[in-house]
From TrEMBL:
EC number(s) from the headed UniProt entry: 2.1.1.-
Function: S-adenosyl-L-methionine-dependent protein-lysine N-methyltransferase that methylates elongation factor 1-alpha.
A GO cellular-component term linked to this record: cytosol
Coiled-coil zones: none
Native organism: Penicillium oxalicum (strain 114-2 / CGMCC 5302) (Penicillium decumbens)
UniProt keyword Cytoplasm present: yes
Assigned keywords, A-Z: Cytoplasm, Methyltransferase, S-adenosyl-L-methionine, Transferase
Gene: EFM6
Protein name as catalogued: Protein-lysine N-methyltransferase EFM6
Biological process, per Gene Ontology: methylation
MF term (GO), any: protein-lysine N-methyltransferase activity
Length: 257
């Protein structure tokens, strides 16, 4: 699929407040140092360059999701397979790789035009041994080297271009396994963005993230964070009808072992 336009192009609207992301009107290429209000002891260096697309700069939902992961999930990512979608320059994935305990390589993904920027930012932060950049176009098959049912999916500011909504839903369907969770942060810029959440709620189990102490603050800027999981499967009605006897209890215990 061809490259999606930027949220600004689509919306022709002013960007969110600079409290969440540095000001970036007509931003020229450069490198930003970022420690997420002290959450990172060693700051990240992020090369920003808009020449290849909107992912070449920092976006507010990426800042919010990075801070949330660093403050709430610093220690429970160890040993988990992690894939970031629409990573842009890799802000969220790189923040997690630097500030959270991770054991396995973390995959940051985007469309072809963002590939070099992702690679540059991995190298700039000397995270070559822990972060892998890949091309993953929503709606296309998942590349074989990207974990197909990762434990954790990260997605920030990926809702802004309506034609891409069903493609993103397809990719989430492909990636989400029974034990996967997607941390999904987006900025609602217009009513149409609600359509994406409606589609997501139909396809998945979508829950608002409630353990972020800054949620009230960023919801005032129309930023929202959710977890997305596969819907729990309904128990077949017949299994409920089997009366529990000593034998069936023993059988279930055996199977569970
Ligand atoms: C607004 S930027 C957000 C970048 C980054 N996640 C952040 O928060 O800073 C949206 C990103 O989604 C990517 N994107 C848009 N459509 C896509 C598609 N069909 N497949 C893969 N990535 C896509 C863009 O290339 C861009 O990097």
């Amino acid at each position: 699929m061809s490259r999606s336009p930027s949220p600004d192009t689509v919306l022709n609207a002013p960007l969110v407040s600079s409290s969440l992301a540095p000001p970036r009107d007509i931003k020229s290429a450069g490198t930003t140092r970022i420690d997420f209000d002290g959450l990172l002891r060693e700051p990240l260096l992020l090369k920003e360059d808009l020449k290849n697309g909107c992912g070449g700069q920092l976006w507010p939902a990426g800042m919010v999701l990075s801070k949330y992961m660093l403050s709430r999930h610093a220690t429970d990512m160890a040993g988990k397979t992690i894939v970031e979608l629409g990573a842009g320059g890799g802000l969220v994935g790189l923040a997690v790789a630097r500030g959270c305990e991770i054991g396995l390589p973390l995959h940051i993904t985007d469309q072809i035009p963002m590939f070099d920027l992702m690679k540059d930012n991995i190298a700039l932060n000397q995270l070559d041994s822990t972060v892998v950049a890949s091309v993953l176009d929503w709606g296309e098959p998942i590349p074989s080297h990207v974990p197909s049912k990762p434990d954790v999916i990260l997605a920030a500011d990926c809702v802004y271009f309506e034609p891409a909504f069903p493609l993103l839903i397809t990719t989430l369907q492909d990636l989400l396994g029974p034990n996967s969770v997607c941390y999904f942060c987006y900025k609602r810029r217009r009513r149409a963005d609600l359509r994406f959440m409606k589609m997501a709620k139909k396809a998945f189990d979508v829950q608002e993230v409630r353990d972020d102490p800054h949620a009230a603050e960023y919801s005032r800027e129309s930023l929202y964070m959710y977890t997305i999981r596969v819907k729990p499967t309904k128990q077949p009605a017949t299994s409920k009808q089997i009366p529990a006897t000593k034998e069936t209890t023993l059988l279930v215990t055996e199977v569970e072992k």
